[in-house]
């Protein structure tokens, strides 16, 4: 029986920024939000093999065969020309990988990592693949000790979380704005389901980290800091990571937005501390 496959944007065998400790980070292709501030905008869409990128590639690393765009890794110089011009916000470099192939990569890295993190795009848009992968890891005596985390935008339904939690140690989740209006401006969708996911996961001890992204003049955390702090306090002892927006790597109008400074982050941190939110984590880097 063949194992399930997923569309994979990138695989990093050793990462120290995608959860606690050294981890294998798997980035799946496709997302159900359209965040203006996304630093991986080419992971949003799925390649529809239109072929527009093929002639534009300066290194002849792309071709068309049987109506599909083919990526030739041996010629690719990672210049990102195809990413910048893709009308689908996709990448022709995404690869189809099976659970068995992923397990091979994980086994090679296993002696040097504490676990794996599946991210995106939005990881849960390919939920069946994650379920099969995590289940296989839990059933393998050489991999069962590795923790399985998901980095998510929180749009998954409660039914989906119920399927995932038995094989997942925790979820790292972003709250990109407090009000639905502001969230809709930033991402194209409201945040009602995201708030529900945050509370639901926290009650079950599966919210590994809540993340707030400070974007000067764009997010509304400070305008609603009383409500935000009360919301966080009800979650219990959950780490809150304050991330600093930087325009580098973004696409479209976000390239002109002001990057967050340490002072911007400290302002929010001070306001949260004053309202009883203590377990804060800060950016390791400001750009």
UniProtKB/TrEMBL annotation:
**Alphabetical UniProt keywords:** 4Fe-4S, Iron, Iron-sulfur, Metal-binding, Oxidoreductase, S-adenosyl-L-methionine
UniProt key word Transport: no
What InterPro entries does the annotation carry? 4Fe4S_Fe-S-bd, 4Fe4S_Fe_S_CS, Aldolase_TIM, BssD/PflA/YjjW, Organic_radical-activating, Organic_radical_activase, Radical_activat_CS, rSAM
The similarity comment for this entry is: Belongs to the organic radical-activating enzymes family.
PROSITE patterns reported for this sequence:
4FE4S_FER_1, 4FE4S_FER_2, RADICAL_ACTIVATING, RADICAL_SAM
Q: Which cofactor does it need?
A: [4Fe-4S] cluster
**Listed Pfam families:** Fer4 (PF00037), Radical_SAM (PF04055)
List the source organism: Citrobacter sedlakii
- What region holds the 4Fe-4S ferredoxin-type domain? 38-67, 68-96
Q: Which SUPFAM superfamilies does its entry note?
A: 4Fe-4S ferredoxins (SSF54862), Radical SAM enzymes (SSF102114)
- So which domain of life are we looking at? Bacteria
UniProt protein name: YjjW family glycine radical enzyme activase
Q: Any idea where the Radical SAM core domain is? A: 17-278
């Amino acid at each position: 029986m063949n194992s399930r496959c997923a569309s994979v944007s990138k695989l990093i065998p050793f990462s120290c920024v995608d959860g606690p400790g050294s981890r294998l980070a798997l980035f799946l292709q496709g997302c159900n939000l359209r965040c203006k501030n996304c630093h991986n905008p080419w992971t949003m869409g799925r390649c529809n093999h239109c072929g527009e990128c093929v002639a534009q590639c300066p290194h002849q690393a792309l071709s068309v065969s049987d109506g599909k765009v083919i990526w030739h890794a041996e010629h690719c110089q990672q210049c990102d020309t195809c990413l910048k011009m893709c009308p689908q916000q996709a990448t022709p470099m995404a690869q189809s990988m099976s659970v068995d192939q992923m397990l091979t990569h994980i086994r090679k890295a296993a002696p040097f990592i504490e676990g794996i993190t599946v991210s995106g795009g939005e990881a849960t848009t390919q939920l069946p693949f994650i379920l099969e992968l995590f289940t296989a890891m839990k059933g393998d005596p050489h991999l069962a000790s590795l923790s399985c985390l998901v980095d998510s935008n929180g749009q998954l339904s409660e039914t989906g979380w119920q399927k995932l939690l038995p094989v997942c140690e925790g979820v790292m989740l972003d709250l990109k704005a407090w009000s639905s209006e502001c969230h809709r401006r930033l991402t194209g969708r409201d945040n009602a389901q995201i708030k529900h996911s945050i509370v639901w996961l926290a009650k079950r001890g599966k919210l590994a980290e809540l993340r707030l992204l400070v974007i000067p003049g764009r997010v509304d955390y400070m305008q609603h800091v009383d409500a935000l702090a009360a919301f966080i306090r009800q979650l219990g002892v959950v780490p809150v990571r304050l991330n600093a927006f930087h325009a580098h790597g973004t696409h479209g109008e976000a390239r002109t937005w002001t990057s967050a400074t340490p002072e911007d982050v400290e302002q929010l941190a001070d306001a949260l501390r004053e309202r009883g939110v203590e377990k804060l984590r800060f950016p390791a880097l400001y750009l």
